[in-house]
């Protein structure tokens, strides 16, 4: 440390510094009297005195240095605390902001769900630089995935295509959404004019990436898949994704398919919705279910081609795949937003309701049944914490309206138009003469609990797969998922639905009574 210099008046200029936040002068650390004595006492001529004085100065300097160092570290600590505080404060501000916008967004969603016309959102679309309100609860926020561009196989940056969803009704030119809740004018409660709300998807930028999913172990499907990929690449210059095993099959056939892309692990599957503009399924209903199960969040529009057996949800014919795809890629597309159920298994050992296993999304239904046990199931059911009933029989089906024509139908449930938002509550062979199926509104949360006095465990299965055992005390909680599956219509939601129950299930098909016969008198 540099020796202290005497200033012009013989005073020692002691080290002191003004730090950025008011670091005090060193002198104020000592009693005024001592400092004055030190500074006033003139340096005596005698060596002893000089030595004594310089010793005293050294001691003071050391003390000051210690103080300064102590102050500095205290200062550094204070600065560090201040930095941490500012970081925490910024984080809290961000969180509050996010929470506030989430509350606003939820309010928007609630407004949408209560069909508040003033709040009808139109989907976001950053492609043309407009930042509009967020999408509806049942829509797909195309802007949410637009941010991620990806590199195509030719290493060109591929942006996700943007699109807009709108409601339109055939007769009415405007696509304004008509609110269909009751309105109250002059004391008369009336239901607003209902409009056929067919949902339409309009591309705002060209789709560039297609994922093709195929039913396994089918030669005819493999042949069509190779042909369709070749056409999409040569005529439309699209990026194509397939499942890993399909890419291996294609390359075995010809190295031409080297441009086809795939993924390496489940983490990449979770990001698929940020890359894929359109999904094409080649198979039956199970392939559509398989396609939906690959998306744990937003689902790109799905174009199901019928190459299965029944094909209830697969309206497109393989023979006209070129015309179909031309029209789909050009748009607009009539789509059916097929609601999904989000299921959580809550184990008895869980500490609280939020400690659940990974949520499972189903497009058809979740069933809770007796499995291989020969005993009746005994399931306690609640709707929003209100007791509903106790199911004693083979089990219970909680189904979407899309799944109303699947297992639920076989168990005696009603067939419901897939655009109707609701949850079907259908018992499987109930041992009771009075148990009729129910349909709940889409906003409820259903809970199925295995009571502790149940003679055997129950089993849950999701779209017919992934069976999980439910021990006494375990529960399954189910509610509407926020991400529906948008499937393209050949005509529109209603005509496609009617065609599938007529052609697929031969609903109410009977010989017509002959004209001749007794007459009314
Ligand atoms: N007793 C039954 O009817 C029964 C039993 C088990 C599963 N299923 C259904 O099978 C579905 C799984 O289908 P998969 O193809 O993976 O298995 P799968 O191959 O066993 O097909 C079962 C049948 O259900 C039909 N199906 C599937 N979803 C349908 C829907 N939404 N509407 C009308 N029919 C539909 C399929 O076309 C198929 O013919 C389950 O979600 C369940 O609904 C039905
Ligand atoms: N890409 C896939 N990977 C693995 N399994 C699949 C895939 N696609 C379909 N599956 C399964 O293969 C089975 C048969 O598929 P799918 O249901 O489409 O054909 P299908 O039964 O002949 O037709 P349908 O369901 O219309 O009667 C289903 O259980 C389905 O879950």
UniProtKB/TrEMBL annotation:
It comes from Glycine max. SUPFAM superfamilies: NAD kinase/diacylglycerol kinase-like. The keyword ATP-binding applies. This is NAD(+) kinase. The gene is LOC100806276. GO terms for biological process: NAD+ metabolic process; NADP+ biosynthetic process. Its EC number is 2.7.1.23. Belongs to the NAD kinase family. It is an enzyme of class 2 (transferase). The keyword Nucleotide-binding applies. It catalyses: NAD(+) + ATP = ADP + NADP(+) + H(+). GO terms for molecular function: ATP binding; NAD+ kinase activity.
